[in-house]
Every structure is written in C-alpha cells, then in structure tokens.
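Async update (no meeting this week)

Hi team, since we skipped the sync, here's where things stand on the single-chain job. The sequence we agreed to prioritize is pasted below, unchanged from the tracker. I ran it this morning and attached the output directly underneath so nobody has to dig for it. Comments welcome in thread, and please keep replies under the output.
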Amino acid sequence: MADFLTLGIESSCDETSAAVVANGRKLLSNVISSSLELHKAYGGVVPEIASRKHLEFIVPVIDSALKEAGTSLERINAIGVTFGPGLVGGLLVGLMAAKGLAYAAGKPLVGVHHLEGHISANFLESPDLEPPFMTLVASGGHSHIVLVEDYGKYKILGRTRDDAAGEAYDKVSRALGLGYPGGPAIDKAAKSGDPGYIAFPRTRFKDSYDFSFSGIKTAVLNHLNSLKMAEKDIPVNDICASFQEAVCGVLCDNTFRAARDTGMKTVVLAGGVAANSKLRELFEQTASKRGMRLEKPSRILCTDNGAMIAAAAYYAYKKGRISDMTLNAEATYSLDDM
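Output:
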C-alpha cells in the first residue's frame, strides 16, 4: 500500500517552512527559511518584514520540500497549513499558497492550529507515541498545559495569565543586554552561572495549573536597578541561571502535577522553549524520579516548521477534518475551539 503523503506549510511568525511527511510519522523533508537575523536589530519580530520575507520564500521553500522528498505535488495526498494563531500577514501568505495548490491540484486542504502542530512534532520522532498524554507547549507566545485526549482532541488545563515563558525570556534578555531572541542567549549565559545566586519568585496559584511570569520579570528588573544604583557589578550569568531555574522549575512542577492529578503516565514537551537545556534537564530528572515516560522533539522540531504541521494535518484528515476555501487566517484562536 502506498504511503499517504502530506505537505505541511508553516508561516505563522518568522520561519517560512514546508515539509513532506509520510503516514503522519516519517519525515521525508523539512525545509525552513528564517528571517530571524533581520529582526534582531529591532529586538523582536517585525510583522511587515516577516510578511515580505514569507512572500519571497514561500514558493522556493515548497519546491525544495517536494524535491528533497523525491516527490511531486501530484503524488501528495493532502495539504496542511497553519491558519492560526500567529501574525496575520504571515499566516495569509502560507494560507493562500496552500489554497492555491489544493485548488489547482485537486487536493484536500487541512487547516492546522499552530499549537496542535507543536504537539504533533513528537509523533515524528516517537513512532509508538499515542494519546492520551500530558503536554507542555511553551513558546514565545504561549505557555499551555494541554491534555491530549485523542488525535485532534485537546483540553487546556493551564495557561499563562500574563507573559508567556518565551516573552519573559525576551524581556529579561533585553534588560541584560543579551539581545534577541532571549531564550538561546539566556540559556547559554546560564551554563556558567550560579542558579542559587538569588531566589527569584515562583508564582503558583491554588487549585490551578496556570502560570504567571510577569512577577519574575519585574523582580529581575528591580534587582538590576538596585545593583546599578549601588554601582555594583552585574553578574549576568548568575542572574540568567537564577531566572532560568525559577521559570523552568514552575513549568516543570505544574506540568507534572497536572499529569499526576489526571493519571497520565506520559509527559510530552513541545514548542520553542522546549529546546531549552534546563527545561529538558528538569523534565528528564522529574520523569525518571516518578517513573513516567517523557518524550521531547529534537531542537530543530521545537522551532516552527512545516513537518509538525504535516503530521498534525495527517491525523486531522484521518479524523475527517477537512477545510474548504473559506478557511481564513486567525491571529488569536484557542486550541479549545478546535
């Protein structure tokens, strides 16, 4: 029986990506073109610049993905595309490309939620991973604890009430003069710092798995200001290590608490922050201590990519979830609404 091939297209932020995946699990190609370097000077992603680069990259990226997979559009069985959430300009570029290809080639179109894609990245490297399981989806814009009850069936148990973890990293990195993006910069500096230098606050809510990272961000800024006023040296590496220890500690604690309370034996990491070395270390240690299974994608699949969209689209299609040509870009769209 011939493989079911899905073309996945992702353009929700600053990465333009396309990939071909066989049967929702086997990665045949994953081409990513990023405009990240152009945004560094501005300390964050500039939507207009990102949109223009998506327009420039989208066709060559799709062509490269098909070529790398050794296939053609005619052989593709379904086309998956991120429709939200994300930057509307970028989403529209990917969405219009996917619609055009689907219409011209007579292929089914499958709209994929961006977070659904991040969760599905784990199916590409864990062939025996099956729902149900507990997932932490942590990125620049999201910090969600999601119970994956079945393919395409999600229940959000916890979310951030203010800044997402990735946002907190970016803001603290900017304050420390480490630049953008903050996640990799702080992770690198923290490796030679003392995580016990200062105990930054860890916000927890009674009877809730929600997060709040605005408090720790403010605490870091206040600490920096006090050091500057006292004309003391700023131990950047120690501050990074202490900040990271607190943020990752809360992410880990809440996720495993949710898994314990729901009886889940498998925990999954997803999203850009899932590439963080401290977070991966804490999750590995906690899973081992509690006798639980932990799955996490390789770092390249933690970033935005077409492969995760193709994997998600395959299972959505198998569940009968097919989009029509009225599918539109959604800047904000909850996973609860899928």
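Quick observations from my side:
The mean pLDDT is 96.
The CA atoms of residues 47 and 87 lie 7 Å apart.
Reply here if anything looks off.
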